Amino acid sequence: MAVTLILGGARSGKSSRAQALAEAESDTRTFIATAEALDDEMAERIARHQSDRGKGWTTIDAPLSLADALRRSTGKVVLVDCLTLWLSNVMHHERDPDQETARLLETFDTPKTLILVSNEVGFGLVPETRLGRRFRDAQGRLNQAVAAACDRVELVVAGLPLVLK
Amino acid sequence: MAVTLILGGARSGKSSRAQALAEAESDTRTFIATAEALDDEMAERIARHQSDRGKGWTTIDAPLSLADALRRSTGKVVLVDCLTLWLSNVMHHERDPDQETARLLETFDTPKTLILVSNEVGFGLVPETRLGRRFRDAQGRLNQAVAAACDRVELVVAGLPLVLK
Amino acid sequence: MAVTLILGGARSGKSSRAQALAEAESDTRTFIATAEALDDEMAERIARHQSDRGKGWTTIDAPLSLADALRRSTGKVVLVDCLTLWLSNVMHHERDPDQETARLLETFDTPKTLILVSNEVGFGLVPETRLGRRFRDAQGRLNQAVAAACDRVELVVAGLPLVLK
After folding, report:
1. Interface test with A, best of B6, B116, B123 (most A CBs within 10 A)
2. B144: nearest CA in chain A?
């Protein structure tokens, strides 16, 4: 039906905003988590987030194969949290970000309501490391490509949404 | 009467914006400074800021006990500049940021006009140090909590205010 | 006729936005490039950007003498990309940023349409190095001064313009 991108900084309230939008939309919701449980601390944190979300959510883990997970998801509303961790995984596994982005965008043609969360990371000084600069550039390109394909884009600042599109 | 949060980046013009709002409101104004004069350079900088503000301001230093200073302040308009330095002091003295935030929010129920300045620091890459990540998270939580309790929130970019609430 | 500032983060789409505005305005356009070709990689990148812009653009290189280049430019529309690289060159050559900014602002009184691109860099943690802090402060002051003198200011996020003025 509609694809929405929720952008924001760290601890800006973007995930809460995305969940509130999803909960207002439907009772059958899928949560696609892109965080990878690489150690016990991370696994615990993921479990806590899952329990925080409460009832009415089916969770799918998709650290890498996001397009497949989106196609597999059955809820009327599908929330992806977040594209930044997914991009980090894509780059860590040396896949091509532009190619993976193209595959993601193909899934937007769907009768479901999609809500995607992503970080805005480009408002600081030039990063000191080459990897930092590569990641920042890739995140900027990803956000632009996704935003162009979305019906609605919001920037969340201190918990407050600012409509960009 | 009303509580306003002025958010902005470094050298965004957020302090000037806050001062202009305060000066338009009343002639009896209190300035709560959260910067700590740890060395001569800092002491000099604070003195210069104070003289820049000109007449009509009473200054209170409150690097840590912000809630007490707000209760003690007598002006019709009270300006706090800024919550970021205060949070940094709170964490440096190993006090609990969430507890201190709760104490701050209790002071918002006042007949005075409160204007608070804070930095938005979460729009960059993940900080390299654990302390950096902790501070960024705490600042994000603080800004969300304060914004939720405010009547008006602005984001200042290049000296220009953008109304968020 | 009018002076416009296009602010944005890294890879935010600010250059594309500025070019689209310029192309909608006139067929005789001057592009003032502030990037310095210090090595082969940079020279190649600059050449690629120039070829990307396509026809209808005259390019002037002005890593330092921006005010002179603006006076010398003949197109009805003049695009400066970007003030951040220019500021970096100004500081690298130990010129005074405030003085150079004042000289830049004098050129705004012109019958041409000026479009200037600049980065917003102050939305992260305090930079670790003194140079980083100095640059961030200078960029903030420059953006404020230019924005105050502009007829229109936009902040571009994920390719989407947000009007600030």
Report:
1. B123
2. A158
Q: State the SS3 of chain B.
A: CCEEEEEECCCCCHHHHHHHHHHHHCCCEEEEECCCCCCHHHHHHHHHHHHHHCCCEEEEECCCCHHHHHHHCCCCEEEEECHHHHHHHHHHCCCCHHHHHHHHHHCCCCCCEEEEEEECCCCCCCCCCHHHHHHHHHHHHHHHHHHHHCCEEEEEECCEEEECC
C56 contact A CB<8A:
no
Query: Order of strands across the sheet with B113-119?
Result: B57-61, B29-33, B77-81, B113-119, B3-8, B152-157, B160-163
Please say if the pLDDT value at position A23 is more than 90.
yes
The answer to whether the CB of A15 falls within 8 A of the CB of A82 is: yes
Q: Which residues pair with B79 in a beta bridge?
A: B31, B115
Strand partners, C80: C32, C116
pTM of the complete model: 0.95
- Distance from C142 to chain A by nearest Cα, in Å? 15
Which of A11, A12, A124 lies nearest to residue B124, judging by beta carbons?
A124
Q: Is C24 on the interface with B (CB under 8 A)?
A: no
ipTM over 0.85: yes
Residues of B involved in catalysis: 49
* C83/B contact by beta carbon, under 8 A: no
Instruction: Write out chain C residues lying below 8 Å of A5, CB-based.
Output: 158
Residue C1: its pLDDT value, please? 59
